[in-house]
Specification:
CATH class of chain B: Mainly Beta
Radius of gyration of chain B: 14 Å
CATH topology of the largest domain in chain A: Aspartate Aminotransferase, domain 2
Number of helices of chain A: 12
Distance between the termini of chain B: 15 Å
Structural class of chain B: alpha+beta
Shape of chain A: globular
Strand content of chain A: 5-15%
Oligomer: heterodimer
Number of strands of chain B: 9
Radius of gyration of chain A: 25 Å
Strand order of the largest sheet of chain B: 1-2-3-9-8-5
CATH topology of chain B: OB fold (Dihydrolipoamide Acetyltransferase, E2P)
CATH architecture of the largest domain in chain A: 3-Layer(aba) Sandwich
Helix content of chain A: 25-40%
Helix content of chain B: 10-25%
Largest sheet of chain A: 7 strands, mixed
Chain lengths: ~475, ~130
């Protein structure tokens, strides 16, 4: 059945009231040349029974592989209570509650989410979330250009150790707004961003430096040096961080002498399952002095006229329904449902639980790296400390390894050559707290057998030590 | 009836301009503008040293109802801003033509002031806008 509440006679009555014959008339302001006409390539509608069966088949096609892939989305354990509570009728909405008089529960939850995020990032204020980590970085770049009133250059330094998809999304969103994204290369040995790579920009007008920590390769950046360098140039610092890692590592608000100015990132690791690339949610926090430049909704706590505590959307004067084209962003929404899950997830784990998750991820990834590099055909690419991901180079063609591992229902990692051509035959691997010693042994055993088969006598492949 | 001092010049965007003895021009928003906007919560002042042209947006007044641009009535260099408004934005409501000033411009061409309205014209302008 169609979920449209108007009957045909309702529609006819409404059209008659405004003097139109057809709904098509309502669109006559759009020039003919801009109209798509009929949608092509869209199949006929299906009944619920058919669509349920199709979706079940598609889900089964995924095969629930054993996942050693991260690269931006992470396979964490989510306590059953998280989505049980999140999907209760009182919470089950993807929408921001605008009406304070009708939405105190959800507003309080978002206020608590913001409080948790400021504690995690070490910054003063948080918004109610954004669409995802990648668009969150684009918003942070736009915000930094507005907030850095000393800088006229609209130039942003963005190391290539920042997630490639985040860089692409940011480019798409900001490149028509006269913002110049300048890429900074990484150190081939350490996989991090060096002071040497920044030297050529010393004394120049830069609006902001982006630092992802841990970076896309899982490597820890020298955040104190980078932050202090940027501030010495009059640039703001945008920290991109994994929320789980912040439970263990120095949070953006504590980087360098005075801390990052803006922190953003992907909230998926906080209670959101890996699901076809989304929906996820982006988080954003900043120093108090920049709050009026922060995009998105912010929930504040106040008192009503009887002095009772109440929650409400605040600082709305900056938003698009009032400021129109001069709004801080035209994405004035949040990912309400996913933030609900993240808040419940964080409350169930607590600060100590989240820290233990981070420690287990790091320990498991070290075990994984040790187990895989026990083979003479596999070696780590970078020599710097990492959090829960590591780049491993194979001295045999990667396809010959990945395909058989896939056949054994193992997702062995993310092939870096797609975005980093210089990193051929290299996998970015990850083991979260959900990977057991047996899982890691299974990956290493299958890999060992595959390598043996490929390198048996007569094979042209040479080991790394040769 | 709003307060419109006769010694000031006014822009259509509701800024007032006062020529000081040293030739610089102090700018604020009119009593009518502050009244329309309501209680001020934040004033974003321009950067000292910034160069502005006439009718360029260079400050923002944010009230409980709206955030609005403040336009430079004449071109020149921003030589002073009212830092006190950071802690007490309500001064714009309480004393729009005095302590509630927003910034001071060193004009490039003081002749540009001629394009602004005098108190009578601004009064008529307000009357016509309210229709």
């Amino acid at each position: 059945m169609p979920f449209i509440p108007h009957s045909e006679s309702d529609v006819r009555n409404m059209l008659a009231t405004i003097g139109s014959d057809t709904i098509e008339d309502l669109f006559d302001e759009i020039p003919e040349s801009l109209r798509m006409g009929k949608l092509t390539g869209v199949p006929e509608g299906m009944i619920e029974q058919e669509i349920a069966r199709l979706m079940m088949q598609r889900a089964e096609a995924d095969g629930r592989p054993l996942c050693f892939m991260g690269a931006g989305a992470y396979d964490h354990h989510i306590p059953a209570a998280v989505w049980e509570i999140t999907t209760r009728g009182e919470f089950y909405s993807a929408y921001t509650p605008y009406q304070a008089e009708a939405s105190q529960g959800t507003l309080q939850l978002i206020y608590e989410y913001q409080t948790m995020m400021t504690q995690l990032t070490g910054l003063d204020v948080s918004n109610a979330s954004l669409y995802d980590g990648a668009s969150g970085l684009a918003e942070a770049v736009l915000m930094a250009v507005r907030a850095n009133r000393k800088s006229k250059s609209h130039r942003i330094l963005i190391p290539t150790t920042v997630h490639p998809h985040y860089r692409q999304t940011t480019h798409t969103i900001v490149h028509n707004q006269k913002i110049d994204l300048v890429e900074v290369p990484y150190c081939p040995e350490g996989g991090n961003t060096l002071a040497d790579a920044l030297k050529q920009y010393e004394g120049e007008d830069i609006a902001a430096l982006v630092i992802q920590h841990p970076n896309f390769f899982g490597i820890l950046e020298d955040v104190d040096m980078l932050t202090d360098w940027a501030h010495a140039q009059g640039a703001l610092v945008i920290g991109v961080a994994n929320p789980v890692s912040m439970a263990l590592l120095k949070p953006p608000g504590a980087w360098g002498t005075s801390g990052a100015d803006i922190a953003c990132g992907e909230g998926q690791p906080l209670g959101v399952p890996m699901m076809g690339g989304g929906p996820y949610f982006g988080f954003m926090c900043c120093k108090q002095e920049f709050v009026r430049q922060m995009p998105g909704r912010i929930v504040g706590r106040t008192v009503d006229r009887d002095d009772r505590i109440g929650y409400t959307l605040t600082l709305q004067a900056r938003e698009q329904h009032i400021r129109r084209s001069k709004a801080t962003s035209n994405i004035c929404t949040n990912q309400g449902l996913l933030v609900t899950a993240a808040t419940i997830h964080m409350s169930l784990l607590g600060a100590e639980g989240l820290k233990r998750v981070a420690q287990a991820c790091h320990a498991n990834t070290r075990k994984l790296v040790d187990a895989l590099t026990a083979s003479e055909y596999v070696e780590p690419v970078f020599n710097r400390p990492y959090f829960h991901e590591a780049a491993l180079r194979f001295s045999l063609p990667l396809d010959n390894v990945v395909r058989p591992l896939n056949a054994h229902n193992i997702l062995p990692g993310y092939a870096l050559a797609q975005e980093y051509p210089e990193l051929a035959d290299t996998l970015l691997v990850c083991a979260t707290e959900t990977r057991t010693d047996a899982d890691i042994a299974m990956y290493a055993d299958h890999l060992g057998r595959i390598i043996n088969t490929q390198t048996a006598a007569g094979s042209p492949v040479k080991p790394k030590m040769a | 009836m709003s307060n419109i001092p006769v010694e000031l010049k006014y822009a259509k965007t509701h800024e007032w301009a006062r020529t000081n003895d040293d030739g610089s021009v102090t700018v604020g928003i009119s009593d009518s503008a502050q009244d329309q906007l309501g209680d001020m919560v934040f004033i974003e002042v321009p950067e000292i040293g910034a160069t502005v042209i006439a009718e360029e947006a260079c400050a923002v007044v944010e009230s409980v109802k709206a955030a609005s641009d403040v336009y430079a009535p004449i071109g020149g260099e921003i030589v002073e801003v009212n830092e006190a408004l950071a802690d007490s934005p309500e001064t714009v409501n309480n004393d729009a033509y005095g302590e509630g000033w927003i910034f001071r411009i060193e004009p490039v061409d003081a002749g540009e002031l001629g394009a602004l309205m005098d108190a009578d014209s601004y009064s008529d302008f307000l009357a016509s806008e309210s229709h």
